[in-house]
Amino acid sequence: MHDRPLAALAAGLAAREFSSEELVRHQLDRIARLDGGLNAFITVDEEKALAAARAADERLARGEGGPLTGIPIAHKDLFCAKGWKTTCGSKILSNWVAPYDAHVVERLAGEGAVLVGKTNMDEFAMGSSNESSFYGPVKNPWDRTRVPGGSSGGSAAAVAARLVPAATGTDTGGSIRQPASLCGVSGIRPTYGAVSRYGMVAFASSLDQGGAFGESAEDLALMLNAMAGFDPRDSTSVERPGEDYRRDLAKPLAGLRVGLPREYFTADLAPDVAACVTGAIDELKRLGAVPVEISLPNQHLAVPVYYVIAPAEASSNLSRFDGVRYGFRAAEYADLNDLYRKTRAQGFGAEVKRRILVGAYVLSHGYYDAYYLQAQKVRRLIARDFTEAFEACDVIAGPAAPTVAFPLGEKSNDPVQMYLEDLYTISVNLAGLPGLSVPCGFGAHGLPVGLQVIGNYFDEARMLQVAHRYQLATDWHRRRPGNLR
Ligand code: GLN
Known about the structure:
By secondary structure, the chain is of the alpha/beta class. It has one domain: Amidase signature (AS) enzymes (Alpha-Beta Complex). It is 38% helix and 12% strand. It contains 15 helices and eleven strands. The chain has helices spanning 6-14, 20-34, 46-61, 103-110, 153-160, 177-183, 217-227, 271-286, 302-317, 336-347, 350-363, 368-392, 415-419, 426-431, 460-473, and strands spanning 41-44, 72-76, 114-119, 166-170, 186-189, 210-214, 257-261, 290-294, 395-399, 435-442, 448-455. Strands 1-3-2-4-6-5-10-11-9-7-8 form an eleven-stranded mixed beta sheet, with helices on both faces. Helix 8 (271-286) links the parallel strand 7 (257-261) and strand 8 (290-294). Helix 2 packs antiparallel against helix 3 (46-61), helix 7 (217-227) runs antiparallel to helix 15 (460-473) and helix 9 crosses helix 12 (368-392). The site of glutamine has 14 residues, from loops. Glutamine (GLN) is lined by residues 125-128, 151, 170-175, 203, 310, 422.
């Protein structure tokens, strides 16, 4: 059962070939057998999952099911789900049970999707390898000595190993697209404002956006249909008419202009990854797309700008974790200041502390103008590069990550090397644009490579069309890691 895409699972449920309870039991059994070696999950709740599955079966029996009713899914452990431990991969939230549902959680539950568990992630979504989690690293299902990417590495690995057919993630600088690329699954980060951030533990609020992982573009469209939509509780949620993200999937690509940024195909891109991405672009040409060379002249400033803005916002957002209101509190302290100091010193890991320090520094009097304000200006220039590029093309294509999955430990002591993992994804977040990654081949060591497709604002349906047509012509997304039967 785990080998079928979402639409086929929905068809099986609708035809009563199997019940949601059977399907969920099958997935729970897979998780029990395989997750010990992967560490993709922080929490799995069999009882809650089976109760939701039975409720979905009743709904299906009444003929009231939708495309996700009865389908097992997992949420990245920064989406609040009522009654579920929600840790954000951190010790400081390791004992925190969410008292309410995130908008995304509410929406998917409303569709009848069955939450089986919460997935592992880099602490507070800070990282590109999943090694900063308090719960230990996630292993890449294709090679367990390697990272799955991050920060949504648990969700990407869970889908790659078919522990669940689909899962949520968040992408602040690449945390859906980069792990999707490294794990050989499809993943989409929608336009900023398309999916509500209500109930998502905040990292960098002007960049954070929820999205999804699945086997195929069609799966992503189904997930997005449930997740996207206006929510008055998120002040940056955009009010626009609802849309069916599947509507253009079948349309041919003839005449579609695909922008190829000169700055994406340089020596920074590993040759094995470049070969797969170029092969994918050739396939798009065969399908009728027209390549157009474009330039994103401020691309080289994206990583430095992000590492001013994201830490600045993080230092402010994370000030709420003080040991008083919720979460972990240091056991012994002398007075209130000591309580704050000890709680935060013991509760946060090294990468989170590094970001808080950098953020407080760039926001401080005397450095604000030189760093933070300057970064905001360059952010505008980066967004303008895309606006100009989209005058010449309909979508942009390139790599999602500069390399295939790297060995565990290889970059964990070198923050700058780790930050460069998001070279091709971060500018999209700074501009607020949507981007996706779909499997497009195998590079060094037989490891998966992703093709990134970037769209204009709210052009997810077109990006999904490109990805779907590509997936009709190729079978990279159907390949499975060996030894995970
Ligand atoms: N890797 C980037 C970072 O560490 C992006 C993380 C993300 O998208 N959440 O900040």
